[in-house]
Specification:
Length: 427
């Protein structure tokens, strides 16, 4: 996205709408879920409007607003189209999975997340995952699904996870991600799958004889809606089409509409498909994209005062905030900080390319930190809450917000991420 090389200077107080919105997303669903579900569009729109009016009327920077608006449209076109098309494909599973089958499923799901996104892969695979483990399903099955398929698995391509797609929109080359993130991806996926195998093996051995006998029976898989793979192919092709403006987004919308309209209703009903989750993402990210403008600009202009002068620090600080905020704007925030330290602007594609070429280890730290730590809480990444909700609909007892962190994320993810930071960033 082309823009002015120098960001406009916002007043520090204009960071407050961004902070308030992220706090609302983190806290209000737990304090007053009913109220939040009714009024979150008003909260997001109201806080976003404050920032937009400030940039248009007070500091006279309409170009900055238009730039972020285009990024939002591109972001939602990808996320929304992948969500819709994945909801038009139904996978039916009969049989009970052994631990090694579950591990294979998680690895393949982690690969698929890079092709259709963590949102698309989560929505496509969570129901088969519930069905194939229905006789011994526990919360840890869902937690590791969130860890791998909804988060860590999507760190190989810009399509995989929203932070990486935002980086691509700002000028990070598409294939840079897989060339530099594959080792971190392999380390994290192997570690998590290994831990899951130990837990799942114990769960399987404690199961009744009837359940274990089911696991030795022939397992059958049935796929419906496979013609929609063509729509997925069109979406992935459109990602590479940056000129003329609007072509990429238009093709994604076309693919989603075509898939939705040509898919039999029974497939949508089997998937319990609704537009609710993507509508929620659209409202909340609309507010996030608007309110984060002053935060990004202020950090870019004052980056030398932040003190993030190493890849190790960038990995942990980006990750820490990605775990309690949303990881997509957090990625952009610290990318702006890192670039600002070197006299470069996130608003210039040429500056982004320069940063990628000269400071790739810092970009690697920000990328892995944002994607990995999105798994630390339910609010770290968009699919997390969606998967939790669908598991609860299937009568799986899920841990609370803090239970998720204390029982699973902190004891499992933090040691693994600490080892990754030493392995990749200690030098």
């Amino acid at each position: 996205m082309m823009g002015a090389a120098l960001a406009p200077e916002p007043h520090p107080v204009m960071v407050l709408p961004f902070v308030l919105l992220l706090l609302c997303i983190a806290v209000l669903p737990f304090l007053g879920r009913g109220w939040w579900e009714r009024h979150y569009p008003k909260v997001a729109l109201g806080l976003g409007t404050v920032t937009v009016i400030y940039y248009l009327a007070l500091i006279k920077a309409p170009g900055r607003v238009m730039q972020v608006g285009h990024e939002y449209v591109s972001f939602m076109a990808l996320i929304g189209s992948l969500y819709v098309v994945s909801g038009c494909i139904h996978i039916r599973v009969k049989g009970e999975a052994k631990p090694w089958i579950n591990c294979t499923f998680l690895v393949l799901g982690s690969v698929l997340a890079n092709i259709i996104g963590t949102t698309g892969a989560s929505m496509l695979l969570i129901r088969p995952w519930l069905r194939m483990n229905k006789y011994r399903i526990t919360s840890f099955h869902i937690i590791f699904f969130i860890f791998l398929i909804s988060n860590v698995g999507g760190s190989l391509t810009p399509v995989g996870d929203p932070p990486l797609f935002l980086g691509y929109l700002h000028g990070v080359p598409f294939w840079w991600v897989i060339r530099h993130c594959w080792a971190g991806w392999a380390f994290a996926v192997a570690g998590l799958v290994g831990i899951f195998w130990v837990l799942d093996r114990r769960n399987f051995e404690r199961a009744s004889r009837e359940v274990r006998d089911r696991a030795t029976a022939h397992e059958t898989w049935t796929f419906e809606g496979l013609p929609n793979l063509a729509a997925l192919g069109l979406i992935l092709t459109a990602v590479f089409l940056r000129e003329p403006p609007g072509l990429s987004e238009g093709l994604m919308l076309l693919a989603a509409v075509a898939a939705y309209c040509t898919t039999p209703r029974r497939i949508h009903e089997s998937n319990e498909f609704s537009f609710g989750p993507v509508r929620e993402v659209a409202w909340l990210f609309g507010g996030i994209f608007a309110t984060m403008i002053p935060a990004l600009d202020y950090l870019q202009l004052h980056s030398s005062q932040v003190g993030l002068d190493s890849s190790m620090k960038l990995f942990w600080v980006t990750g820490a905030l990605s775990s309690v905020l949303d990881n997509a704007p957090t990625y952009l925030t610290f990318l702006a900080v890192a670039m600002g330290r070197h006299g470069l602007s996130l608003n210039s594609v040429q500056d982004v390319r320069t940063f990628v070429g000269q400071h790739e280890h810092e970009l690697l730290a920000i990328s892995l930190g944002a994607v990995f730590f999105g798994a630390m809480t339910y609010i770290g990444n968009g699919p997390n809450f969606m998967v939790k909700s669908m598991a609860e609909q299937a009568k799986v007892r899920m841990p609370s917000f803090f239970g998720y962190m204390l029982r699973y994320a902190i004891p499992i993810l933090l040691p693994l991420f600490a080892a990754a930071s030493i392995l990749f960033f200690a030098r």
